[in-house]
Here is the input.
Amino acid sequence: MHDVLVELVVVMAGSVLAALVLRQLRLPPVVGFILVGILAGPGGLRLVTNRHTIEVVAEVGVMLLLFTVGLKLKLGDLWKMKGTVFGSGTLQVAATGAAAAGIALAIGRTPVEAVVWGMVVALSSTALVMFLLEGSGQTSSPLGRGMIGILLLQDLAVVPIMLALPLLAGKQSDAAAVTLFLLQAVGIIALTIIGARLVFPTLAARVVAAGSRELFTLTTVLVAVGTALVFGQFGLSMALGAFLAGMVVSESEYVSRMVDDVTPLRDVFNSVFFVSLGMLVDPAVWVARPLATIGLVLAVVLGKSLLAGLAIWPAVRDVRLAFAVGLGLGQIGEFSVVVATEAMRLGIPPGGGSKLFLAVAVPTMILTPGLNAISRRIAERCQSGCSDLDLDNHLVIVGYGVNGRNVHRALRLLEVPDTVVDLNPHTIKELEENGDAAVYGDASQEAVLRAAGVHRARGVIIAIPDAAATRGVVQAVREIAPEVNIIARTRYVREVGPLEELGANQVIPEEFETSLELVGRVLEIYGAPPQVILEEKMKLRQQHYGVLRSIDQPGDRGELQPFGERLRLVELEVAAGSAAAGRSLRELDLRRITGATVLAVQDDGDTTTNPSPDTVLRAGHRLVALADGSCEEKLRSLVGTS
Here is the structure.
């Protein structure tokens, strides 16, 4: 146990050092993690010799990574991606596998070795690509969806590939056993979906009701790792199981809290995973066969990128976006290592041996962050191809979630021109079909903002939930349009200051707007009139929520006065010949003129509470009103004898 802890400490210490160095160089830390694994592993300084324990920890990281990615995609989104998953994904696996096998045959490998080489080359790194997409916020973009669609099919393809290996090795395989396995796979997937839909909501509600954050975190990890383990027990991809579990429970009302709880654990375990990949490599192969490894690395990256781009093109119909997707999938993945390991166990290693295979596979992963950054830039240029909208003095709504949709509807009722910017292509298509102005793209990009006419707009409303993305949009808008009015929605009041510093004119924090509504409801319970409630809310907003933010600091409570000290109930009789006699409450407009609120009208013992504005006052009527000193004086002058 002591040795295991020592090796884990070595791995984590190396990861921290590599991340710090690469951050200074503005390079992705994942490259450093892999290099640490190469240096510390059996082929390097041999600081870590027990790779098995490291691999176990690494597998947990992959599960949590795929679970959190699944949390951000709904099952309905997967169905919308069916063309990409089963069409483009199948085409990519088949074409890449066939091409790799053909090249292996051409250089003299046996047919069986060539087929195995085709299998391992066809698969990309789900964990690495998902990690990079998650870090760049691209999981929901067309670029991310294209990559995820193909990766999902690759994970599904692992099942038939693993079933085919015994046949390639010349071992007998029972057709009935294969059929039973496939039926079990379908059954497990179906049970996972049903269980998550029916059981999880009840379980989550009870855990939340218990009021323990630790219990909620433990339950979240249990759902992710437990589902993955069940898939693994039946010979399915554990990563696929974790991803599916996250996708199915993504419709839960607690999904944001689940993401917050899992993310720190995921990041720690993921660093270990990428270190473990580096430990697979024997650097001596690079020294002994430099030209062969460099040539194979380039062939794999370029060949896979080209074939993946061709496979996704029918789904995206954009050459640049297709190339960007292909470029992000140009590496050999971790499931390739699993397939290669099983093939070696059965006596059919990939062409050239396991050491050469790993010496080629890991460098393709090291190149992936850089290639992924290039693919994002290409995808962003695709967005800049849209022409500017012919709008002027309009409002730009960034994000078409619940808040953005409500603002858009309200503006339509008011006949105020607006345009929506969103990253969901289905949303943009729907808006355009309805005749609304809409622009697809990342609102932090200048080309997208100019296409939406931000430089000619009266105001920009930012209604996206992600705080970091909101800051990026505010900064980008302010650089393009220094005078435009920016209203930003944010979740927490601590984000108000940074957004205002970046140039937001108004920031609406959800947590304190909720507090203001609660304050208003309390004032209503104690009989405060609507005018007083509105005044107190306005004071708090004008102070930038200062009273609420500094509620624990004595002496900094603004000018909010207890309304009970200012208001009281008064009872007045309408005098004959007064200005109020013979006129309705609507005509008198007492609230505007006097500030008092009429709560009831009494007539010969009958009391009408909350009287209608059409109620006509007559001599002898008694009014019950809520007013302070000045309001009462004005009210008496109207209803008393003139």
